[in-house]
Amino acid sequence: MGHVNAATLTLVCRSLRHMLEAGLALPRAWEQLAAKGPRMFRRIAETVAATLGQGESLESALAQFRFHLPAFFTAALAVGERTGRLPEVLLELEQAFTLQVELRRQFWSRVSWPLFQFVAAVLVLALFIWLLGVIESVAGKSPMSLFGLKGERGALIFLGGMALVTLGPFLALRYLFTQGRHSVALHQWLLRLPVIGGALQALAEARLAQALAVALEAGLVVHEAAELGLEATGNPAYAKWAKPIRKQTRQGQQLSEALKSTGLVSDDFLAVLSVAEAAGAEPDALRRHAQHRYEQAADRLRFCTSLAAGAVWLVVVIFIASLVVRLFSQYVQMLNEFEF
């Protein structure tokens, strides 16, 4: 069982929300998901339903799938369970995953053609390298080579090298994103970047504000709401502060002051929270700020998607152009040798 994708989680959130709003009990709703939900989620739903049937909490039932489900998903459901507002939280999750699916679709629609060109160019060059070996075996000499490679072995080396160059960085980043201390350091670094950092901060703040609004409105004490809210961001750089902020607020420190010490929260968020704390109107103010930051996050993530698609296209163009220039220079050199 692999990592559950955003499209599947969108369907899960929608189905669960509709069943709970219709008055179905939580264990029964998960049983329905196990029977009729998305196929790749049925095994998880079956285990969760069985755990709920034994009297355990939803939070503990989902904990065993922490490597298969996004941290944002499990933490947000914990907020909904503790506050008794699961349908509201599920609606927010559904909207968040819908945006994620939209951005992913937008990205792939923009990079599919340059990626096709890249793959086609690699395959054509591998075929060309193989043909050079065939020419050498027939004529006794090959007129040129590509990176010193010829024949079947050369083609395989070229394909292996290209796979390593393209897939290696992706797999390395995936590993760093999923490993504890490496993941925290990587997310902290990403938050400092000019474009993507602002998008990630807006998304994390929107989730934090939404979780705080739901928790505080339901009557949770500030230190519990703060811990749940930071975990619900789904961002390890924020989640690592959940315990320290809980401790500070439990000792009587204002939440806005405690969050300021993290260095991760924007001045706008702190200003909104500080005024709301003084007025005693945190839930309403935080919900409005969450909506504002979600809109900002969506705009910035769309811009980042466009930049990423453009970067992929540029890399493909540079790769193909450099190989064409290299082959042309070898061809010119070969013609000069024939002239002499």
Q: Can you give a write-up of this model?
A:
By secondary structure, the chain is mainly alpha-helical. It has 2 domains: 64 residues, no CATH class; 203 residues, no CATH class. The chain is 81% helix and 0% strand. It is built from 15 helices and no strands. The longest helix is centred in the last third of the chain and has 58 residues. The termini are far apart. The model has no long low-confidence stretch (mean pLDDT 84).
Fold blueprint:
Layout: H1 6-21, H2 26-36, H3 42-53, H4 58-63, H5 71-83, H6 86-139, H7 151-178, H8 180-191, H9 196-217, H10 222-232, H11 236-239, H12 242-250, H13 255-260, H14 267-279, H15 282-339
Helix pairs in contact: 1-2, 1-6, 2-3, 5-6, 5-9, 5-10, 6-7, 6-15, 7-8, 9-10, 9-15, 10-12, 14-15
End-to-end Cα distance, whole Å, is: 65 Å
The residue fraction in helices comes out at: over 70%
Which sequence of SSEs, written as H and E, runs from N to C?
HHHHHHHHHHHHHHH
Overall 3D geometry? elongated
Query: Which structural class best describes the helix and strand composition?
Result: mainly alpha
* Number of DSSP E strands: 0
Gyration radius, to the nearest Å? 27 Å
Beta-strand residue fraction = under 5%
Number of helices: 15
The quaternary state of the protein chains shown equals single chain
Number of domains: 2
Instruction: Quote the average pLDDT.
Output: 84
Largest sheet: none
Spans of at least 5 consecutive residues with low confidence = none
